[in-house]
Sequence to fold (401 residues):
Amino acid sequence: MIPRLKPFIGFEEIAALFRPVNDAVQKFESAFAATFSTRHAVAFPYGRSALWAFFKAMGIEGAEIVQPAYTCSVVGHATVLSGNIPVFVDINLHDYNMDLDAFRKAITAKTRAVLPTHLFGYPMDVDAVNQIVHEAENRFGQRIYIIQDCAHSFEAEWQGKSVVNAGDGALFGLNISKQITSIFGGMFTTNDDEIAAKLLALRERSYSEKSWSEKLFRLFYLPVATIAFNDLIYGFTYWLQNNTGLLRQLTDAYHLDEKIHFPPDYLKRLSPVEARVGLEQMGKYNTIKSRRREIAAMYFDQLKVPDTWVMPPNVEGATYSHFVIRVPNRNEVMKLAAQHGVQLGQLIEYSMPHLPAYQKYSSNNQYPNSLLCSQSLINLPIHPGLNQKDLFKIIETISHI
Ligand SMILES: Cc1ncc(COP(=O)(O)O)c(C=O)c1O
Fold:
């Protein structure tokens, strides 16, 4: 079975788990800042925790935070749990990012931040976003922070320039499903000295060290996950996923869509063990980025899909965290692909304003595109570890469904 995702972990990362490094977290932050050309990078236990910390550090409370209706639920959770109000914007059906007209209309006198999200690695038009926000700032006479959600995209480029530095800050998730990983973890990058200082002060004040058992859990998590994603073992992992509640229990502690919730350790600092893995991954970032682009190019070139399917756009500067196709009969397609040994993903199976926990934040807008995508998107494996044989199998399987 070819897994729908697989962390790009080698001997170096496993060795790094056991090799002490002085000031590993600081070194990881410096390497991260250097890789993404930002002045500051501040590490957190999760991406959501970094966003939560930004709101807290900047004293943003009771404010409206404009964000996509179709995104990971933890973004909404961070908004609500920091005492703010999510304002959802429907997405467009071209690159699945926020519709710019709807985005403009969603900004009000109560907006204190907007979250341009580069979903699936597709860069938003950050120039248009900045212009809309600056016009709104002038209209309402208040500062509106622009925080890029780069959890999927990392440094996708808009008009040749990385989106990471297009606003006041950027948010990254670093769990094993992301383009680079520090086991768990998240990062907030910024070029603004004041934001960085406030984030560091908040982290110092409000976050504590992980307990030894939490550190030990992370130490074992990576080798176990690496084995679980091994080609020879993955059939069994897949069986466990579908036939037992074991893996579900693990992910439920970390991530729930139905309930506005954070994992219990969201106020525990990133551990040195995680930082050491992250440091190793930084050296591989360019390889990961170019390999994903190569695989996407192969799919664009060689996949043959029925007329009723909608292929993703081929966008310059995209980093392809996911290669998404819209299909009318998702369950059937996923089942057929699995029968041929290819696991497809259905990454975001909900539209945020349609989730019961978020209905009170849903406006009169119907968010039809978000709803459609929640019901019809599949994503193909696109991890850099795929070899030519795997790719041939994926292309053959999908082209013959
Ligand atoms: C679009 C998006 N933003 C933010 C996050 C937050 O990352 P984390 O899971 O590290 O909290 C995720 C994670 O899945 C995501 O997909």
